[in-house]
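User: Can you predict the 3D structure for this chain?
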Amino acid sequence: MLPDSVIYVDGEGLEISDLFVLGNGHHKIKLTKDAQEKVIRGRALLEEIMSENRTVYGVNTGFGKFANEIIDQIDLEKLQLNLVRSHAAGVGESFSLEQIRRLLALRINVLAKGHSGISLETLKMLIKAFNRDCLPFVPEKGTVGASGDLAPLAHLALGLLGEGKMWNQELGSNGGWDDAGRVLRKKGLTPLQLKAKEGLALLNGTQLITSLGAQAIEIAQKVANQADVIAALTLDVLKGTTRAFDIDIHRVRPHRGQQMVARRLRSLLHSEENNSEIAESHRFCGKVQDAYTIRCCPQVHERSEIISGGNFHGEYPAKALDYLAIAVHELASMSERRIERLINPTTSSLPPFLTDKGGLNSGLMIAHCTAAALVSENKVLCHPASVDSLPTSAGQEDHVSMGGFSARKALIVVENVEKVIAIELMAACQAMEFLRPLRSTKPLESVYSLVRGVVREWDQDRYMAPDIEAICGLLRANKVWEQVEPYIKNYEETKRMQYEAKPNSPTTSVSYNHRKRARPEMNDDES
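Assistant: Here is the predicted structure, written as structure tokens:
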């Protein structure tokens, strides 16, 4: 095994990028020396307390409503086993194998902090299970996000106890769910034997919310970046004006994300550095402004900080993920309206539904319907799950976060958004066919070429779903962003110490050169 195939875990330094690498199943986990020492100290402290016969919740008491029930010393290990079995009450389909790997990796990372009282022996067994790809069946539904993600984490632990189901890659032609004990034996492992408090240590935490949230964030970041690029392409083929992205407009409202998006759009659209023949073709058209979905991209595409959070109760990450869903949904809401403008001859001056021989061909008519359906679905999914609470555990857990559903629906929303902007990209590239031989800017032409590498021109009706999926694949792999990133960086470097020159436009009320003296364009950190 190569050194770079190992990710060291200490409970403190795991990044989202590490989590995704671990989810792919190509890397192993290893504990740092410091983490091992912390775990040993944490367990020693717990055993010292136990030797003094003190009453400690979850160690020698029942759980929840049964917190005042004292458990005999002889039953302490059985207490933990019963906890896992009784809490493994989730329902529904299983999470994907990648999601289960991330869940197990996050749980190992939290336990490596040494605060839970888990033994080093048990933690090392979890790491062996991860490294040998022992993945228990974890159903999607059943957590309310109060004392953490109890049901999903119980299912995760149950498989490692040799009970329930575990993935067997050798089952059938494509693998399948098998008896957990059998899979463990095949992989050279014996079922986990829980010591005092270890069942509780394995179950309390918000790792399901966090792992799904990390996945949603990863997709959302790619979607947000590439949505800017696709919006720029749509603006150009709709012969829009770039005046709405003027530096001074966005200095008046000093939101860092808004300024970043406006700068990005300027770097991709017509300028001295990147000439667009399409833009030149309508230089004196007299257009004063575009619709909101085009000119307000910086204000709506604005994004804030990466989301993190969550300890015992799931409220913090639940609220963060509810807001993530709302914010990312707006990208699709804007995109769907731009799609409509592209396929509508009244707003685009292009053939209806971007097809020749309309009537015989329907073109992108139903692709737009798909986008509209996804946006409508997202509107329902954007209702915050975290505003709801149903008391559980006989009123002991009288306020719950519903964070598990916040995370699941946030993931659905961002995946729907990805599909909508893929349809917009397909439509924008098809619109360019009707503007030839005019060409757009170099970065946007490179995006067009990228798309045409996987989806050919829509010259007549054909099976459309594979085309949408192919473009979604480009977005998932971040290919659209990678295509334009060098142009954006070059533009920003060029403009760092000079004021941007702008082509004369009939929408400019005064001579640009007399408005103010030249000054450097601020970068995002200075704005």
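The mean pLDDT is 86. Residues 207-237 form the longest helix (31 residues).
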